[in-house]
Specification:
The complex is a heterodimer of chains A (673) and B (208). Chain A is an alpha+beta fold and 673 residues long. Among the domains of chain A are: 1-164, Up-down Bundle (Four Helix Bundle (Hemerythrin (Met), subunit A)); 517-632, Tick-borne Encephalitis virus Glycoprotein, domain 1 (Sandwich). In chain A, 63% of the residues lie in helices and 11% in strands. Chain A has helices at residues 2-29, 32-61, 68-73, 80-85, 91-112, 121-141, 166-181, 183-195, 201-232, 242-267, 271-294, 308-330, 346-378, 386-406, 417-440, 446-477, 481-491, 493-514, 632-649, 656-671; strands at 519-525, 530-534, 540-553, 556-567, 570-582, 594-596, 598-601, 605-614, 621-629. In chain A, helix 2 (32-61) packs antiparallel against helix 5 (91-112), helix 11 (271-294) packs antiparallel against helix 12 (308-330) and helix 14 (386-406) packs parallel to helix 16. With 208 residues, chain B is mostly helical. The longest helix of chain B is centred in the C-terminal third of the chain and has 32 residues, at 138-169. Chain B has eight helices and no strands. In chain B, 50% of the residues lie in helices and 0% in strands. The radius of gyration of chain B is 38 Å and the shape is elongated. Chain B has a domain at 57-128: Helicase, Ruva Protein, domain 3 (Orthogonal Bundle). Classes of the chains: A alpha+beta (673), B mainly alpha (208). The interface between A and B is large, with 116 and 98 residues.
């Protein structure tokens, strides 16, 4: 099977180069035969890469430990669930996953894009082939997943225990899907630049792709946070690790794009900015891949250092140079069709929103790269950890939250003073009231208080928008309020889906604020002994160590400590936390013992228990007890955000072109009054 | 009665009687299987499975002042975490417990929090800090993003004012394909509720 895999990679490589050449040349010369060939090349490359994936999965499931990748990431006793995910657990396999998913996305884009955009498609095929061919090149010349060992070990190393978690089965592919799908909007942007078709039409072609990409990135980030929380055991979900930051960067710029693209669709403005955002987002996604794989910045997530990093660096520089040179040459064709008319308008608020989103992205990038810059400038390497990022980004994040509430309250084109008063009255009052209640209630953490008060303001904004819309339908059609609300959302999916996303964001901010009140303590307990801890809500938890048991599971030896939990004298149940020593099929330890956290979650707080270890080989155990307020809301807010994204994406509701006609029709109606 | 007794019950009874007769309380130092609320802890079957043996936690390990210092110091094991987080998370790490002991040692010598941090910087260089000190080039690290955003915001405000003035000077903007939404008069900007309702009604009739 490795022969088949290697062969498939070579076919994909050659076909990819052919597809790139024929795509660009066919597009520039208008040669239909070459254009058709490029299209076929994408499909052929997709088939070859899927064959390579099949070959690698075959080797993984058949425990072909002569294949270095299989021996490095699996063992005979690895559960099937994780044997599948070993495909992207290592550097080489993840490169194959990247290239094959890109070829699938490329094929889908070529198949389902409307004929209206046919002139763009040869270039799209060219870009997809070029990018996928680069990944295949890296595999063939630097990181071949089908490389064989000189001997065949009896068993493999097994998968890192921290990757043996359901979150880790879904988190990397989701993030990859987000990164990879961003190549399609980028390909359309390059196609628009190359073909000089720089009207708003290419945006229509990528609308769904940008949303898909943003949605996958959002899900990937949220699953990553969940995995970090339940698996890593440090009691948090975001550590500003360089690889986390690398995933956040394109998400921020894509979010900016999803806002600013509305201005281009409605007013024909911000063409240059939108193109730059699409190109920048894709380059950031490649940079994220470079950071993860080069070892240039130390990170817990990084793959081992390898020459792959140099390939990515060269690719990144070449792609950036080519993209921005082309962009610069087309700038004269990108003039706005209309001008902004007032500082107090929806357009202006979107501009400030974009400024903040891109500013936060810059600040995260700046902090991530600052150790390298410092070494270059000062000759001293510095550490840039959470204290730095929190200090720089919390004020910016809160300003962004405020704009999340302000934007929807301001009218398009120009807002009048009476309109502003009417719009802002309820949200401002709500935000102020929430802040006052918290202050009177004794909250003294300034950032947390501001975050929750601003969340109140945004919630009132969103509520007001839904209430007004539903009331208007109720008055107009006599629909019951629930039906009016459902139809309101159904007929204006983009707008109200966006508000649902805003709701998810405000829930996330409130949840983040909760972490300001995290409490933790370490204790040593003998069986029967109790520890008492107080939660930020004033409750008293009593935890009784019941004892430790040891037993064998499929691929691990488990040491489990059990504790009985009471809150304010009421028994809540029993919680377990474990130490796991993973072993291979021959019973040999494969990794250092890992920790399995015990978590009891409710709406207000999480009780988070970690078994640190035991004293002198006895049942006397060291525990860390953490109380994390409002963590449940991070996951709930994430679900709301994703649901909002799905509402926006849901088919139907009319294309932006139809919306424009509707808007124009509406304005003409008003004009006749 | 004994005739009704099964073999299992019989051996259980004999075993019980024998253990009662042979019962000797174990000395306090001897290991025994533990039960909730009973004295010393029992030995684990295989302690090596539970990771590195740990010392019992002391009150100073939970000292807020010590924790605050350790949260500013980076563990040098390569985990990228601060000393406190590493020693309370990665229980296989031997670096962070050693750094913790060093913090305690320096505190015992009467050093202040800043004195302890300075001592670590002297011994390990500035990269031992979780965030760079606010001086020299590092100030750019802290303030450049915010300064750039403020500068960009100022430029944006100026540009918006210029555009707004230019728009006011040219009242009749020709409609462009992408700008069909141009209202015909200022009255349209402050449409009455009745107008808006009529508008909505017309919009709802449109397909999509």
């Amino acid at each position: 099977m490795t022969v088949l895999g290697n062969l498939a990679l070579w076919v994909a490589f050659l076909v990819g180069i052919w597809g790139a050449l024929t795509g660009f040349v066919g597009g520039l010369l208008g040669r239909a035969d070459l254009q058709q060939s490029a299209r076929h090349a994408v499909f052929a490359m997709c088939a070859a890469l899927l064959t390579a994936v099949f070959a690698l999965e075959w080797a993984l499931f058949h425990h072909d430990f002569n294949v270095e990748y299989v021996a490095a990431y699996t063992s005979r006793n690895l559960p099937i669930f994780y044997t599948w995910s070993a495909l992207y657990a290592g550097q080489k396999g993840s490169l194959l996953f990247w290239a094959s998913v890109l070829s699938v996305f490329g094929s889908l884009a070529l198949t389902f894009t409307s004929r209206r955009h046919a002139p763009l498609l040869p270039y799209v095929a060219g870009v997809v082939c070029a990018v996928a061919a680069f990944f295949v090149t890296v595999m063939l010349f630097a990181a071949n997943p089908f490389a064989r060992l000189a001997f065949t070990p009896l068993d493999g190393n097994g998968l890192n225990p921290q990757l043996q978690n359901p979150g880790m089965v879904f988190h990397p592919p989701m993030l990859y899907l987000g990164y990879i799908s961003m190549t399609i909007p980028y390909a359309f942007a390059m196609a628009a630049l190359l073909s000089r078709r720089l009207d708003t039409d290419w945006l229509v072609a990528i609308r769904k792709w940008t949303l898909v990409s943003w949605l996958f990135l959002s899900i990937g980030l949220l699953l990553g946070m969940w995995w970090a929380y339940v698996e890593l055991g440090w009691g948090g979900y975001w550590a500003w690790d360089p690889v986390e930051n690398a995933a956040l960067l394109p998400w921020l710029t894509m979010t900016a794009f999803l806002h600013s693209v509305m201005i281009q669709e409605k007013r024909g403005m911000l063409k240059k900015w939108n193109l730059a955002l699409v190109i920048g987002s894709w380059l950031l996604s490649v940079m994220g891949t470079f950071i993860t794989r080069s070892g240039v910045i130390s990170s817990v997530h990084s793959f081992t250092q390898s020459p792959v990093g140099y390939y990515f660096l060269v690719f990144l520089i070449l792609a950036a140079a080519a993209s921005f040179t082309l962009y610069a040459r087309r700038l004269p064709l990108l003039d706005a069709e209309a001008r902004l008319e007032s500082m107090v308008s929806r357009e202006a608020s979107f501009l400030f929103n974009n400024l903040l989103l891109v500013g936060i992205a810059f600040s995260v990038l700046w902090g991530t790269l600052f150790p390298i810059l410092s070494e270059l400038v000062q000759g001293t390497k510095v550490t840039v950890g959470p204290p730095f990022f929190n200090q720089v980004n919390i004020p910016l994040g809160l300003a962004l939250l405020a704009l999340t509430g302000i934007g929807p309250l301001i009218a398009w084109r120009r807002a009048s003073l009476p309109n502003l008063k009417r719009q802002f009255a309820v949200p401002l009052t709500t935000g102020g009231f929430v802040g006052l209640i918290l202050l009177v209630g004794g909250m003294r953490d300034g950032w947390a208080l501001m975050a929750i008060a601003l969340a109140g303001f945004v919630a009132a904004t969103v509520g007001q928008e839904f209430a007004r819309g539903a009331r208007a339908r109720h008055r107009q059609y006599g629909e019951p309020y629930a039906l009016a609300l459902a139809r309101l959302v159904g007929r204006n999916r983009r707008r109200y889906g966006g508000y649902i996303v805003h709701t998810g964001i405000l829930i996330l901010f409130v949840a983040f604020a909760g972490m300001a009140f995290k409490t933790e303590t370490q204790v040593t307990l003998r069986p029967g002994e109790r520890a008492t801890i107080r939660s930020p809500y004033g409750w008293t938890y009593r935890l009784t160590h019941l004892g430790i048991s040891q037993y064998d599971a499929l691929n691990r030896q488990v040491t489990a400590a059990t504790l009985e939990v009471e809150r304010d004298g009421k028994r809540l149940g029993v919680m377990t936390t474990e130490k796991r020593q993973h072993v291979d099929g021959l019973g040999r330890p494969t990794f250092q013992p890992s920790t399995e956290v015990g978590i009891r979650s409710d709406l207000r707080e999480d009780l988070y228990i970690v078994l640190g270890g035991v004293v002198n080989g006895t049942e006397q155990a060291v525990f860390r007890f953490t109380i994390n307020p409002l963590v449940w809301w991070v996951w709930y807010g994430g679900v709301v955000l994703v649901l909002g994204g799905l509402v926006v994406m849901w088919p139907g509701g009319g294309s932006p072109a139809v919306k424009r006609v509707q808007a124009g029709y509406a304005v003409r109606l008003v004009g006749k009054q | 009665m004994m005739a009704d007794c099964t073999r299992r019950e019989f051996f259980g009874l004999v075993g019980g009687l024998a253990s009662t007769a042979l019962y000797r309380p174990l000395p306090p130092s001897a290991a025994q299987d533990s039960l909730p609320g009973t004295g010393p802890s029992g030995k684990l079957w295989d302690p090596s499975r539970a990771g590195r043996p740990l010392p019992p936690v002391t009150a100073r390990d939970n000292d807020a002042a010590i924790q605050a210092i350790e949260k500013q110091l980076k563990c040098t094991c390569g985990c990228n975490q601060d000393v406190y987080t590493c020693r309370t998370t990665d229980f296989n790490c031997t670096t962070s417990p050693a750094m913790h002991q060093r913090v305690l040692q320096l505190a015992d010598r009467g050093k202040t929090a800043q004195g302890i941090i300075d001592q670590f910087v002297r011994e390990n260089g500035v990269q031992i800090l979780m965030a760079p000190p606010k001086r020299g080039f590092n100030l750019a690290g802290y303030f450049l993003p915010s300064a750039l955003i403020l500068a960009a915001a100022a430029v944006l405000v100026l540009a918006l004012r210029r555009w707004a003035r230019a728009a006011a000077a040219t009242p009749a903007t020709p409609a462009t394909p992408a700008a069909l939404a141009a209202p015909a008069s200022p009255a349209a900007l402050d449409a009455t509720a009745a107008e808006l309702e009529r508008l909505r009604r017309e919009l709802d009739r449109l397909p999509g």
